[in-house]
């Protein structure tokens, strides 16, 4: 298939006799190569049941990258092969509640590990969450490569109406695109849980402004500083009473109360409350 | 060849800033190739639309095909093209780019127009159709397939009632030499032949069918199918082929509808729409290209040439106001653009009781569900302190490895802080103490410039030394309690 960051092929490592996924990354300049390799170093040090394992990183024709950081314009990441990803599964509809719980548990377990190493994923979404259909092991993949390898222009100001959708972005990240904290991964994890239970994306805005509107319709804003910032940034879209039109319980009527309670605690507007 | 040389001559090498000022922050829209901005000609103060592409063969192709077509009054005009080096704020160096100056379409997109004019009539719809068809005819006479015909690519010149409609965005366009086979489409408007090309392409790729010496191809008539879909949406406000679920790829039920040409004229909206209009739609949405209405057939159709009054107000204006419908369409577009693939594979999940999952295995070994709020430890206090010490060391590694976004001084201070914390919890570690001496650590900070990668490597060895006598940390904490205590236990 084609991952978001380039061509991804499955292959067999002939030395280690194991099936691997090989991802080709095209690096257009020295700076992005440097950033990508730094990210790769992070990934290679992460060793956990619920993180996709990166075995090695090679240059063209399988050459060793050691000491030749800036000579290549492509790199190949040899990593653990996983049969499918959560996006493919959700494509087919909802998961059972027990599958969703098992996957969510493993997702949080993986997040706890990387957050304890002070690493942020920053691009958590179903397509970056891999599932082994054999034993239902879930692994988080594609660490930060989307940001490093895809050097697309990112809006540094306030909300924009560009075509790029950011369905798993937390309200803080929508307001301040470069304000990355561990809490943004938790927001994305909450959206993913809701999607596993309902088969639908939780907040699927066509653009950032609408994304924020959808969030405000459902997630209450309780802190004064958040209200002040919203009034400054998008005054015409905020209702004067700060009422939510569709609280989570009404938005997800078929989801059981305990899962709703969990979602209400993880999908808070302020990152500090998450 | 002569066309190519003419095109190359038309591209200017001088800086665009000599003749135009550019509004970098105002974006008019986004095509498949990128955002479109406003620029102003300095000599006349005229406003134009500016599209900036990386200078690549694909971009040159887009420019060439658009320039070939742009002589028609229903196609957005290209004023001139510049080849300049441009550096955006997030880039470290300038890159070669094509800057395409086009006429400004002040009237905006077709759907937006329909939703604003709440009295959009069938006559107006037929007028839009005629102009779109004339634009398409012009392309096809040049043997060029547009391949991305959709309402977003139909723009009004201005806001007057009889403003002309023009076709834009040739990012997917291609000369039809009988070799159109690369699947290029956005959902809702995609022709069945393109879906079939996609299906075969995927099967060949995965080896399910051999790569054919005569690959499956489609032709310019895929644009006519898209035209049929656009007419349908204009008339009633929603697409003919749809799915109940918004999805990141074309859902199976929607694909099946497209492949079989199954659509309806629901009574609620279509009872007030003329039979002539329905006839055009039916004849365009034929699965077999040879059965499909031709361009000339559309232009000759009574619906486009009737002197009869077609003043009935269409329901599309009201339905177009329904934000959920528009958002759904836009969402599908955006997702499809970002993820040009269709998953054919059916994946099924095993029930939990028949799965050998490590988490489930551990729960069986423990024999019971964990108590509220309790981690299961091998050692109580020692492991707690040890965990903190290890976490501080990991923070040092993260600080060394993470890309340095800020100023050097701030980063150095952060490294000193993190190292100080780790030092506080790891004073007894001889390996760490010896290593830090070689990095000029004075107990509170580094006095010299630090090679961060080497420091990270050393700290990693310290962590490995501390964890070797015990099980890896991930096993020591056997279970994680979910944040919401009341959520059902796994």
TrEMBL record, chain B:
GO terms for cellular component: cytoplasm; cytosol; nucleoplasm; nucleus; protein-containing complex; septin cytoskeleton. Keywords: ATP-binding, Kinase, Nucleotide-binding, Phosphoprotein, Serine/threonine-protein kinase, Transferase. It is an enzyme of class 2 (transferase). GO terms for biological process: negative regulation of TOR signaling; positive regulation of dendritic spine development; positive regulation of telomere maintenance; positive regulation of transcription by RNA polymerase II; Ras protein signal transduction; regulation of translation; stress-induced premature senescence. GO terms for molecular function: ATP binding; calcium-dependent protein serine/threonine kinase activity; calcium/calmodulin-dependent protein kinase activity; calmodulin binding; mitogen-activated protein kinase binding; p53 binding; protein kinase activity; protein serine/threonine kinase activity. It catalyses: L-threonyl-[protein] + ATP = O-phospho-L-threonyl-[protein] + ADP + H(+); L-seryl-[protein] + ATP = O-phospho-L-seryl-[protein] + ADP + H(+). Its EC number is 2.7.11.1. Residues 22-304 form the Protein kinase domain. Gene3D superfamilies: MAP kinase activated protein kinase 2, Phosphorylase Kinase, domain 1, Transferase(Phosphotransferase) domain 1. CDD domains: STKc_MAPKAPK5 (cd14171). Belongs to the protein kinase superfamily. CAMK Ser/Thr protein kinase family. This is non-specific serine/threonine protein kinase.
């Amino acid at each position: 298939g084609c991952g978001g960051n380039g061509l991804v092929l499955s292959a067999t490592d002939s030395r280690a006799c194991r099936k691997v996924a090989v991802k080709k990354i095209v690096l257009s300049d020295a700076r992005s190569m440097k950033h990508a390799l730094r990210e790769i170093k992070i990934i290679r040090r992460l060793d956990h049941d619920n993180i996709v394992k990166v075995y090695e990183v090679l240059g063209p024709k399988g050459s060793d990258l050691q000491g030749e950081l800036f000579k290549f314009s492509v790199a190949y990441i040899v990593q653990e092969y996983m049969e499918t990803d959560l996006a493919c599964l959700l494509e087919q509809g909802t998961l059972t509640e027990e599958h969703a719980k098992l996957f969510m548990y493993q997702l949080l377990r993986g997040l706890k590990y990387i957050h304890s190493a002070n690493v942020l994923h920053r691009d958590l979404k179903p397509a970056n969450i891999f599932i082994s259909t054999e034993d239902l092991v879930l692994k988080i993949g594609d660490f930060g490569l989307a940001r490093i390898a895809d050097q697309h222009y990112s809006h540094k100001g306030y909300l924009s109406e560009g075509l790029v959708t950011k369905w798993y972005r937390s309200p803080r990240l929508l307001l301040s695109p470069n304000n990355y904290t561990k809490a943004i991964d938790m927001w994305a994890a909450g959206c993913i849980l809701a999607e596993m239970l309902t088969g639908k994306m939780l907040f699927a805005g066509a653009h950032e402004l609408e994304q924020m509107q959808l969030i405000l319709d459902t997630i209450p804003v309780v802190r004064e500083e958040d209200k002040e910032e919203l009034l400054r940034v998008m005054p015409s879209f905020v209702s004067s009473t700060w009422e939510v039109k569709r609280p989570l319980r009404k938005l997800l009527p078929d989801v059981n109360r305990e899962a709703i309670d969990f979602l209400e605690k993880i999908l808070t507007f302020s990152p500090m409350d998450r | 060849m002569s066309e190519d040389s003419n095109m190359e001559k038309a591209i200017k090498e001088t800086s665009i800033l000599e003749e135009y000022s550019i509004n970098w922050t105002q974006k008019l829209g986004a095509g498949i190739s990128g955002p479109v901005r406003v620029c102003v000609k300095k000599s006349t103060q005229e406003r134009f639309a500016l599209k900036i592409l990386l200078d690549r063969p694909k971009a040159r192709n887009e420019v060439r095909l658009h320039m070939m077509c742009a002589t028609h009054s229903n196609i957005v005009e290209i004023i001139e093209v510049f080849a300049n080096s441009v550096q955006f704020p997030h880039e470290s160096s300038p890159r070669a780019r094509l800057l395409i100056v086009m006429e400004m379409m002040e009237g905006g997109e077709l759907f937006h127009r329909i939703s604003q004019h709440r009295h959009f009539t069938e006559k107006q719809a037929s007028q839009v159709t005629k102009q779109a068809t004339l634009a398409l005819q012009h392309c096809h006479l040049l043997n060029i397939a547009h391949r991305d015909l959709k309402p977003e690519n139909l723009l009004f010149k201005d806001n007057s009632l009889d403003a002309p409609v023009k076709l834009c965005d040739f990012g997917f366009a291609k000369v039809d030499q009988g070799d159109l086979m690369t699947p290029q489409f956005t959902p809702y408007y995609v022709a069945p032949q393109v879906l079939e090309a996609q299906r075969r392409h995927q099967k060949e790729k995965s080896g399910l069918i051999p790569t054919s010496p005569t690959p499956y191809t489609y032709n310019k008539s895929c644009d006519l199918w898209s035209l049929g879909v656009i007419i349908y949406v204009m008339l009633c406000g929603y697409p003919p082929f749809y799915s109940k679920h918004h999805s990141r790829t074309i859902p199976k039920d929607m694909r099946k509808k497209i492949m079989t040409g199954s659509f309806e004229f629901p009574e609620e909206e279509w009872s007030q729409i003329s039979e002539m209009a329905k006839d055009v739609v039916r004849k365009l949405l034929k699965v077999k290209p040879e059965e499909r209405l031709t361009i000339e057939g559309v232009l000759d159709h009574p619906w486009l040439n009737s002197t009869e009054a077609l003043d009935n107000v269409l329901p599309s204006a009201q339905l177009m106001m329904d934000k959920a419908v528009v958002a759904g369409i836009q969402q599908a577009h955006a997702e499809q653009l970002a993820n040009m693939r269709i998953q054919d594979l059916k994946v099924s999940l095993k029930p939990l009781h028949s799965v050998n999952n490590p988490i489930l295995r551990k729960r069986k070994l423990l024999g019971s569900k964990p108590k509220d709020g309790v981690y299961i430890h091998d050692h109580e206090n020692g492991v707690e302190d040890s965990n903190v010490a290890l976490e501080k060391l990991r923070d040092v590694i993260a600080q060394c490895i993470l890309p340095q976004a800020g100023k050097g001084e701030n980063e150095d201070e952060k490294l000193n802080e993190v190292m100080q914390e780790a030092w506080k919890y790891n004073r007894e570690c001889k390996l760490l103490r010896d290593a830090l001496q070689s990095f000029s650590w004075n107990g509170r900070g580094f006095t010299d410039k630090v090679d961060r990668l080497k420091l990270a490597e050393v700290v990693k060895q310290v962590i490995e030394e501390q964890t070797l006598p015990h099980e890896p940390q991930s096993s020591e904490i056997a279970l994680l309690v979910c944040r919401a205590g009341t959520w059902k236990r796994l």
